[in-house]
## 1
Amino acid sequence: MTNDLILIIDFGSQVTQLIARRLREAGVYTKIFPCTVSRDQIREAKPRGIILSGGPASVAMADTPRIPQIVFDLAVPLLGICYGQQAMCEQLGGRVEQGTSREFGRAELQIIEPSTLFEGVWDGNALNRTVWMSHGDYVAELPDGFVVVAKSAGAPFAAVADEVRKYFGVQFHPEVVHTEGGDRLLSRFALGICGCSGSWSMAAYRQRAIAAIRAQVGDGRVICGLSGGVDSSVAAVLLHEAIGEQLTCVFVDHGLLRAGEADEVIGLFGEHYNIPLIYKDVGELFLCRLEGVSDPELKRKIIGNSFIEVFDIEAAKIDGARFLAQGTLYPDVIESISAAGGDAVTIKSHHNVGGPSQ
Amino acid sequence: MALELVEPLRELFKDEVRSLGRELGLPEVLVSRHPFPGPGLAIRIPGAVTREKLVILREADAIYIDEIRKAGLYDKIWQAFAVLLPVRTVGVMGDARSYDYACVLRAVISSDGMTADSYPFTHDFLSRTATRIVNDVIGVNRVTYDVTSKPPGTIEWE
C-alpha cells in the first residue's frame, strides 16, 4: 500500500519548493527530502511517485550527488527534472556530457513523440512550446528502454520517457511559471501517471492535524505564544479546536506594536474564542532597555533577548505545561534541512523576534 | 524549561496557512494581514526609539493603512508601513515655521518576500495620504515614498 503522496528528492535547486507548491495547488500532498535522506525514510514514506529535482552540481563530475538506490527499488513512477533527469539517465546506464552551449531562460521545446506525460498538458496541437531552461550539462546517450519525446536547441533529450517503467525526465523546469503548461505537466505526472487522488485540501488537513495534535499531546498542557500575526493565530485556533482547555496562550506586548493591535489580539482570543490568555504588558521594560540605543542589530538583540526572558517567566507560571506550540512553516523546515547536511533536522528557535534584517 | 515542541503548521506554506485560517473561521482581516516583524515598530524608527516617536509613527501608520484599505489596495500589496526618520526638516504650516519629523511610506509587492518591488501608487493616492498625515499627525511635516526594490534594498529599513 502506498500513501497518497508524491516525494520530491532535492538536489539543491533554488526552485525545489516551487515543485511542491505546484503539486499542492493541484491537491497533491508532497514532501521534500534532501538527496542524502536515509533509505528507510524514503521507504516508510510509501510515495505513489517520486520527483527528482534540479541542482547546481554536475553529474559529469565524480563525487556529486546521486539518486539513492531505494528510489529505483520502489518501482514507482519517477520524474527527473534537469539534474534529476541527468542523474537518472546516468545511473540507469546512459551518459551525461558537459555542454558547450548552455541554455538559460526561455527556450523552445519541440515535441517529437507523443508521451503519456504530455496528455492534456497543452491546449491545441502545436508541437512547439515555450519552456524555461537552466543547464550546462545535457543527456548525451539514453539508457535502455528510454525514447526521446522532445528536444530543444541546447538539449537533444529535452524530454525522455520509458513508458513501461513510467520513468520520465525533462531538461526544462516545469515548476517555473515561465514554462507553458508546466503546472499541468506536474499534475499530469502526479494524478494521471502516479494515481494520486488530488484530494489534499485544508479541510482534510484540519482533521489530520487535529488528530496528530491529540496523539502527540495526550492530556498534557500546551503553551502557545501569540504575536497577532497570521501564523501564531492559526496555530492557536487549531490547537484550541484539538485540545480545548489544555491550551494557554501567552501574549507578550513589547510596546512596539501598531495602533490597536494588542486590543485586537485580546479581543479575538480572550473574548471571541475564550482561550485562556496571559497578557503581559512590558512596554516600559523594553523602552527602558532600548533607551539611547541606535544601532539596528543591537536594537534587535535587546528586543529578542528581553522577549525570551519575559516569555520564559510567564510560561514557567503555567502549572504542568509540557509542550510549547509554535507556528513554524514548511519553508522554515526545508531551510533547516541542508541538502548536503544529511538527515539531521535542526529546529529553529521559536523566539524569532531577534533575527537579522531581511 | 524543557518543553517539547508542537508545530501543527510545519507542513504548510504561507498561503496554505491563510486558507487553513479561513477554513477555521478566523476573521478575514486577520487572515490576510500583512507580515509584521518580531521587533515591531522599533525597526521602523531608525536611531533611538522613544515614546514620542512611537506615538507619532503609530498615528501615521494607521492613516496610511486606512487609506490603502479605502482605496481597495490592501490585498494587492505584500506589505505596507510607515517609517519615522530621525530627521527633522523645516516646513510652513498656517503661516508659521514648523520643524518636525519626516516620515517615509513603504509598500512592496512580492510573491514570497525574497524579492520585492515598490508598489506603483498613483500620484493622487500619495498626495492624498501625505496631506492627511501632515494635517492629522502632530510631529510630522513631510512625507516621502520609498521606491527602492529588494534587492538592493530590504523591505524593512533596519
## 2
Amino acid sequence: MMSFDLNQMGAARKLLVVIAFTALITGCAKGTKPDAEGAVDEGAAGAESGATVGTIGGDASFAGTALEGKVISYEKEAINDPNNVLSIKTIYFGFDSSEISETDVEVIKHHGKYLSLNSDASMRLEGHTDERGAREYNVALADRRAQAVKKLLLYQGASASQITIISYGEEKPAAFGHDEESWSLNRRAELVYE
Amino acid sequence: MEIKRWLLIAIVAVFSHTANAVLKIDITEGIEGATPIAVVPFKVDVRTGLKTDIAAIVSSDLARSGMFSPVAETDMIARPTSPVEVDYKTWRIAGVDHLVIGEVKSTGKDQYKVEFRLFNVYRGEQVLGYSFNSSRTHIRTTAHQISDLIFEKLTGLPGAFNSRIAYITSQRTKGKPIEYKLQVADTDGYNPQTLLTSKEPIMSPVWSPDGSKVAYVSFESGLSAIFSHDIRTGSREKIASFKGINSSPAWSPDGKKMAMTLSKDGNPDIYIMTLDNKKLRRMTSHWAIDTEAAWMPDSQSIVFTSSRSGKPQIYSLSLNSGARPKRLTFDGKYNANASVSADGKVITFVHGGNNSYRIATMDLENRSMQILTQGPLDESPDFAPNGTMIMFASVDKGKAVLAAVSTDGRHKHRLALSDGEVREPSWAAKRY
C-alpha cells in the first residue's frame, strides 16, 4: 500500500538520510546506523549500546543542529516536506531488540508532537523484523517494536485513537538479500501517515 | 546418484503438464543403508488410456522416506506384471529385497481396477496384495495409498504419503506488489491448489486434525486475522480479528479448540479459544513475548516460545488452572517454534546460534537435543504424521524452498518452486 512497498533503493536512501541526520546531531557517524557491521547474533545488545548517543544537549541544541539539514515545523503539510524532520519515517532496531536509540527517540518525539497538534492526522505504525528465526516469534517481536514507538508518540500528546499498529514480522521485507545489509534495513518500524 | 537421476526424469515427465506451479523434488542426501526395492511398471490395459505411471509415484514416495532405495526403471532386470512371471532368483542376484508388481484394468470410462502385490524376494513369497477401484481423477491418490500400505507392511509404521501439505508461496515481480498464495498439494508436491491469493501477507497455515480445514493468518484487510478454510467447500470463517496481533493458530487434537497468540490485552500472550462459542481463555500473562503454541497429543498441555528469560526459549505449560510454565530448552540462546510428534515424545524447533538457524529435536524424556540440519536460515519445522520425517522451510542459493529431513538426520530432500518462493509447510495428519 504505502511506504512499506519500498524497494531497496528507497529504503537505502532513507537510511542515508537517517545517518546524515544523526551525524549532524552527534558529530560522529555512529548514531542510528541500524546495526554494527558484520555478524550480529544474540550479541546484538552490544550493537544497540553502540548506538547510544551521548552529546545531545537538550531540545534547543538538538533543534539548532537539525535545522542545518532538516526543517522542524508541525504544519499540516509538514509530513510531505522532504526537508522536514518528519520525513524520517523509519526507525531501525538491533537484532531481537525493541530498544530505540536516543536519536530515534528525538525523531519519534517530533512525530508525536505533530500528531498532538494535528488531531485529524492518523498513523499506521508498522512493525517489521529481519528474516532470521521463527516467523511467528517475529510477528510478536515486530509488535513490541511498534508498541515501543507508540509509547513515545503518546508521551508527546498523540492520542491512541490516532495510531493503528500492524505487525508484519518478517513478511514484508524492505530489502530482499539474505545478509546483514538487508537484515539491518528490515529490522524497522515504519510510521505511515494515512 | 542413480536414484536422483531417475527421480528427476520421472518428475519432469509427470509434472510438465500442469498449469499451477508445482514443487520439484530433489533427494539431496542419504540413500545409503536404505532397503532396495523394485517397483516394476504396472501392466496397463490400453482401453484405460491411462498415462499416469503408478510405479513411478510409488517409487518416488518410498525414496523420499529415506528408508527405501527403489531400483531405477532402466536398471530392472525383468518386468514381471503377474505372480507367475516373478523369478525370485534373478531379483536375489540383483540384490533387491522387495518387489512390487501391479496391473490396471478398465472397468468403464475413466474407471479402473488397480491391483498390486508385494513380494519378499528372499523368502520367495507374496506378503501383501490389494485391489482398488479408482478413476482418472483419483489415480494418484490410489498410488499414494499403495505406497502407504507397502511402507506400513515393511516398516511397521503408518505411511504418510496419502496426505496433503499446505504452504505459503510468494512471487515478487518487478514493479508490482508481492503476491502471496496459500496452497495445498499432495505430499509429493503434485496437484497444487490455491486456497487464497492476496497482495498482503498470508502466514501460519495449519491443518485441522481431520485434514478437512486449514487455519491461517491473513493480512488481507490491512490488519491480521485468523481464518479457518474448508478445503472441500472453499468456504471460510474468520475466527479471530482482535486489536493487535492475531497469530500462530494451533488446533487442539480433537479440533474443537484453537490456541492462538493475541496482543489485545497489550502484550503477545497465548489464549485458547473454544471454537463453537468463540470463548477465550488466557493461558499466559507475562510482559515478555509468549507465542507459537503447539498441543501435546493428550491435550493436557501445550509447548510454546517465550522470551521471559530474555531470549526466546521453549516452555511447556499444563492446561490445569494455576500451572506455571516449565522451561524445556537451555542449550543455546535462540530456541523457538516447536512442533510436537504425534506420539508426544519428541519436539522439533528452530535452534539459533552463531548466526545460523537450524532444525533440532529434543527427546522430552531425557531432554537430549539433536541438531538435524545445516542452516543457515531453516525454520517452521513440522513433523510428518508418522514421525519419521520433519518438513521445514529453508533458503537454498538465495531462494526460499521447502525441505524434509528424516528424524535421524540421515536423509534429506528438497521441494522447490521453479518460480517464486515457498515456505511454512504443514503436513496433514490424513487426507480428508
